[in-house]
Amino acid sequence: MELNRNQYMMIGLVMLAMGIQFRRVESFVLNEQATAIIAKQIKREPDVATTFVPSFGSAPPPAKRVIKPPRWLGWMLLSAGGVLMLYSLAMPKPGG
């Protein structure tokens, strides 16, 4: 599959937006459902030692997972997105 000018521009724009988001946010806190899905995928039980729930016959809710992306990830996405957008402007226009 060959990518054209518009697709390079869109990929660059999405990467640029993700780079801005990763630069603005320090960490992401997942909800219980996403934490349980990730724990199931990596075959690890979620941390339940940090939550105190009295035992009334039900299982304690899984703790929320915190994801801290590395600082360089935002800069990398910003740079790659900018390069792709500039590359798309240098390509010949479609159909002509």
Structure description:
By secondary structure, the protein is mainly alpha-helical. It is built from 3 helices and 2 strands, in the order αβαβα. Helices cover about 50% and strands about 5% of the residues. Strands 1-2 form a two-stranded antiparallel sheet. It folds into 2 domains: about 1-25 and about 70-95; about 30-70, no CATH class. The radius of gyration is 21 Å and the shape is elongated. It has helices at about 5-25, 30-40, 70-90, and strands at about 30, 65. The two termini are about 20 Å apart.
Describe the secondary-structure layout:
Blueprint: H1 5-24, E1 28-29, H2 32-41, E2 66-67, H3 71-90
Antiparallel strand pairs: 1-2
List keywords for this structure.
2 domains, two-stranded antiparallel sheet, mainly alpha, elongated, 96 residues, 3 helices
Radius of gyration, rounded? 21 Å
The succession of helices and strands, N to C, reads HEHEH
Shape: elongated
Decide which structural class fits the backbone.
Answer: mainly alpha
Strand content: under 5%
Distance from first to last alpha carbon = 20 Å
Task: Kindly give the count of domains.
Answer: 2
Overall pLDDT level: 84
